[in-house]
Amino acid sequence: MERLSPKTVLPAHVLRPAYDRAALTPGMVHIGIGAFHRAHQAIYTDAALAVEFGPWGIVGVSLRSTAIAQDMRAQGGLYSVMTRDGDADSARVVGSEIDALAATQERARLLALLTDPAIRIVTLTVSEKAYGFDPSTGRLDPTHPAVAADLATPDTPTGAIGMLVEGLARRHAAELPPFTVLCCDNLPANGRLVRRLVLDMAERRDAPLAAWIAEKGRFPSSMVDRIVPAATDETRARAAALIGAQDTLALETEAFSQWVIEEDFVDGRPAWEAGGALFVADVEPYEKMKLRLLNGSHSLIAYLGQLHGLDHVRDVMAVPAHVARVRAHMEAAAATLDPVPGIDLAAYRAQLVARFANPAMAHRTVQIAMDGTQKLPQRIFAPAVEALASGGDADAFAYVTALWLAYVRRMGPVNDPRAAELAAAESEGGSAPFFALPGLFPAQLVTSTDWRQRVALHFSALEAAGR
Questions:
Q1: Residue 117 to residue 235: CA distance in whole angstroms
Q2: With contact defined as beta carbons under 8 Å apart, do 169 and 233 qualify?
Q3: Which of 9, 94, 333, 441 gets the most CB atoms within 10 Å of its CB?
Q4: Pairwise CA distance, residues 247 & 371, whole Å
Q5: CA–CA gap between residue 183 and residue 192 (Å, rounded)
Q6: How far, rounded to the nearest angstrom, does the alpha carbon of residue 97 sit from its chain's CA centroid?
Q7: CA 201 to CA 196: how far, in whole Å?
């Protein structure tokens, strides 16, 4: 069977780009061309180009891997995405990615692209830990390896923030307008956070550069939502059967997709609303809804799964007691939310339960469980603080915290940027040492004797039950 390429003749039932790819030119750089981006932002761009064609081709950048860039080039930027919702599978071939590069080997080319006036938007999905910020301050963490390296040698950046700053510095020197920076990672107020990090780094190297970015730059916030499991050999085999070609980059995802974006761009944007994107003045209500209801529940499910030997989210959701726990957690999280324009929160929660239980989605709990120190502050700790402030007991969030600590104790060493610190705390026994880790828990939780006791009681119960 041939490999997917621009010459592949696709079966009639496979959706394909509804525009002239040969006429598509670069207009965006995306840093972090993993599965989520390719099953989300790239598809929205595909839909936008079909309705309102323009110079919005995506050049994908891999920060670490070289293989994905090589595979993208080998397939002419094409790849397939299967939608799986339990009844029948459907497939589409996405064409909005027109080139790819590996930053570790092609830094000069990346920086040239970031300086090219044709590039008007830089989007990012690099995971929470890649931004190099201190969660306790929300500012740049100079001890983060990539941040330290990029402060020392700013003209040869290795990290996402360093690349943005160097690209903007070169545009400033060339008297070009800045590009819009659009963060698509699960971080609260992600646009404001990335703006702050970029300005922190820029200020350390050149005050006039920082002032120019502050005045001219744009960093809209966005909220993204779609469940995209890591691809497997089964994924690729299923894709080959559907599209009639081998696709190394094949992905599978659910039917649901959501993108809420703050309308604030330097120099235009694709017509992403053609794919269903919602443009709003304030993303925060949608962002908190998703972080606390979906992502917070995902963390609960992940640690339940890891401690009970359940490999996938759907496996956890097949256990009635776990489903009841998830529903109770969502109810507690919803109580910390303000009304969300256009969203029925009760219906949204019911929809999440159905999405989590989708038997066609093989979303691995180990994938969601990693990087807890980066994920839990916004998913679990922030709503716990608000619940306590409003007079609640925040017990649901204490339980998830205890689950995470039990996971660290049982499954260590865990995949986390603070793994060594977690291991040291775990070796002391009990839950108390974790509260001494600098910048991990908000002060309100550290000083709440009642909440810490709830965590300790849940942790002890989990340990006694061998869970």
A1: 38
A2: no
A3: 333
A4: 30
A5: 9
A6: 19
A7: 9
